[in-house]
TrEMBL record:
This is histidine kinase. Its EC number is 2.7.13.3. It catalyses: ATP + protein L-histidine = ADP + protein N-phospho-L-histidine. CDD domains: HisKA. One of its GO terms (molecular function) is ATP binding. Residues 218-428 form the Histidine kinase domain. InterPro entries: 2C_sensor_his_kinase (IPR050980), HATPase_C_sf (IPR036890), HATPase_dom (IPR003594), His_kinase_dom (IPR005467), HisK_dim/P_dom (IPR003661), HisK_dim/P_sf (IPR036097), RegB (IPR047770), Sig_transdc_His_kin-like_C (IPR004358). It is found in: Cell membrane. The keyword tRNA processing does not apply. It is a multi-pass membrane protein. It comes from Paracoccus aminovorans. It is an enzyme of class 2 (transferase). The chain crosses the membrane at residues 29-48, 54-73, 108-124, 129-147, 167-186.
Amino acid sequence: MSIGLVSRRIDLLPGQPGPEPIRLRTLILLRWVAIAGQLAAVGAALAIGAEFSLVRVLGVIGLAVALNLSLSLRPGRRITGREAAWQLGFDLAQIAALLALTGGLENPFALLLLAPVTIAATALPGRHLLALGTATFVMVTLAAVFAQPLSFHATRLSLQYPLLVGHWFALVIGALFFSSFARLVAAEVSATSDALFAARMALEREQKLQHLGGVVAAAAHELGTPLATIKLVSAELSDELSDALPEREDLAEDLALLRQSADRCRDILKSMGGAGRDDLLIRSAPLSEVLSEAAAPHRDRGAQIEMQAAEENPIVHRDAAVIHGLRNLIQNAVDFASDRVTVQTGSDRREIWVRIIDDGPGFPPALLPRIGSPFLTTRPRAEDGRSYEGMGLGLFIAKALLERSGARLRFGNGARGAEITVIWPRTLIEADNREALGPNPQILG
């Protein structure tokens, strides 16, 4: 199966959220940089004798501070293109209001009106870019029409050509801002692309393994009869040869070897058939079985994995993406657990959830808002000396695959260790186990 097919399969999963155009953390960071620059510009303008309504200017800057503080309560959540466009629209209106209060388009920093639309051009869909471009045209016009004149009075730092100096600073700051932003976005796009490629490769491998399991199960079933026939015929030939040619011990040994080889093939196919029961026609399974399959590779890696299933054991879609995502979460818990990993399940009328708890050191508090980011990080060492190198990609893959199945994830710390909760709406994960599975594949030969 090609990567392109896997990519389309991911895109078609039900209930998946739209792609995140730009991280909320990036917007918050850029806004803090803009606020710091605005305050610095206000201070510099006062120092060189500029006269403007200081209270109004500080009030407009305070609106941006309030927005950033409210967004900082949940900096790790995903945002849609529409929400990003609204935030950039706010930034555009805020900059236009500041310009209108400080000279309008004569203000050297009018150049920064281009910042929100530049961000939109690199990160947002076309319709949002068109809306923000139109808003930029309107805001530039309003800033020019309702501009408050900017005048200067003599101070110790009075400049002969204050506007010329302001234009110099505006160009330098604008160049630094736009180049830094372009670099930041390019790094985010590159890291996200690499992480998504890894997620697709992981899903492709999972699907190939499931397909191979189906072929093995069918082969084990179909070859059982001819092998039994070979063993029966060889046994009869051995009896006949022992009576007709008792002196030909070499033929008796060959027939014994043939029977042993048939027995060996039978045992091999029996074990392969057991491993290949996960064939492609099994589209659904009890939630407990899906979790057991996800946890199976990590049961002998040190920490004990304990399953705590609820009384209800719903039948869910047995999807390779879901299994791989849960497997990554369990692997992360096993990596950092001291002795035990607990996997709990539960459900109500509307939702089905899975909670994975370990008794390790837990997530570092500073890292919690960034969990699920595709950027590789160097984590500090735990008290027991285990390295935290590289966390980010595995959890990003798990988060991306599970969210594309319609789930939402919560990361946190409990009384002991980390807790990850995966929650699905019933309509997206629950399967109807009464529908027909379809015809079995035919194996000719």
